[in-house]
Sequence to fold (557 residues):
Amino acid sequence: MLESRHNASGAAMIAGMERQSRDSACRDGGEVQTPLPGTPTPPRTWLASVFSVALLLVVASPVVENWKAEPFDDFPLSYFPMFSRETADDQRVTYLIGLNPSGERYLLPYGYAGRGGMNQVRKQMNKLVGQGDASKLCETAASRVNRQGSRLPEIRTVEVITGRFSLSGYFTGTEIPTVENVRARCSVARGRS
Amino acid sequence: MRLLGALDRLWFADGSATRLAVLRIVLGVATLVEFGPRFWYFSSIAESSPTLFEPAGLARVLEGPISVQLFQVIFIMTVLANVAFILGWRFDRTGPLFAGLLIWLLCYRNSWSMIYHSDNLVIWHILILGLTRSADALSLDARKDWSLVHFARRLTGKAMVLASPALARPVWHWEYGYPIKLLCAVTAVVYVLSGVAKVAGPLGWEWSLGEGLRNQVAYDGLRKELIDEGAQPLAFWLYNNVALATVMGVGTLVIELGAPLVLLSWRLGILWAAGAFAMHWGIYAIMGITFWYQLSGLAFLPFVVGERLVAWGTSDAPLLARGLAKTLAAWAAEPRRGNVAVTPAVAVHGAPHVAPHGTLPDPG
Fold:
């Protein structure tokens, strides 16, 4: 057995290591294991070290964005800015309103504006409004309202609105916007199913 | 030099091929379950207006969006590669292929005006598993030498020629240990990045004093009130409770910035994983944000799935399950008052007697 260990040859070496490994597996749940004295250690390749260090550096590399004048977030190399932005108390939000014949207002969820998650559609809405395409957004929403037919209240008009809110006010009971700008208004086509 | 030696022993500690393979299978299945059914959802996003296309990551090589049909072909290829990844079939090619395709697919999905941060970690984990020897056990590749053809050739002395790379090494090796360290380290780096972004932001360390967290919750909640199904009720509660927001803010920074320390100790790693897991459930309860990979606990599996658990899972658990199944079968087959006529005769007489005979050695 000793000979086979020192010779470090083929099957005996493998068998010896397997025996050691099973013993180690019983001892701990994954802690660092020190090889038994005299146990041959397989050669460590520099490739694994380079791969490990390189991958960690690549994943950590977006950290520099934190100190840039115009930080840039990317995927999958992100610096994870989502909960770190400064948020002013005064907030502007663009949203969709549906109006029934008697003028009652209904908030239309983001699914009427576009495909994707809430934040994705929100950004797309802001982009369209910023580009002066609020009417396009309004038409998209109106056509989707129309497709919903009788599953919705009788919505006759859709409005794209940018409202200003006080965060502290909203979360302490004042849910009314300080200012509302109607960016686009369009009618829902007749022919509801 | 001593430090380098210690680092070397820490990083290149031996691990079992089975433990790494278990992570490959579990995370591979999770990826398939998460993304596979999203074929039409992702396709509908790929149909968005080209004016909304803002390429991210690997998609930046594109000058504009690709056709939806091409996107769907790539999606299907990704799913097929995912299945090969789980099965460990020709893993030297399908492992890197799946990792590459998944990165590309999610880069493209994030190229429509919004970058989601919920899929970053799963990408790094799959990349590590795809580029290392995670299919040397519990895989089709590992079973190659157990096919009838290989068995016959082994008898004729041609085993060395046919031996797969998987069998040319011990089942316990540093090459199976260091990928798990790397999985944990990448997880830690991602959390550190998130923590650094908070303290490097405009609020600095004051982020932890409650104000930062309250503002983020309110910012997110207001938008959900106006264009989604409304903010979580807990968002209003947290906003009006500065002390609780401070506790949560401090806790968040401790978990995020303290993440690298957990690489030094296995037990610390489990504690940290539990804390991070709880933090994500807290985020979900307050903001309704679903980090699927973290909420399911999958992101923390490399910290939690230890050798002992794997050894138990691959030896004792199947025996236990088999015993339990036999007991249940025997119980089900037992004639009881009122249902004698319903119980099939074969089950009544067969189940208790067949099992013991099955363990007898082959007389041949």
User: Anything to note?
Assistant: The two ends of chain B are 60 Å apart (CA to CA).
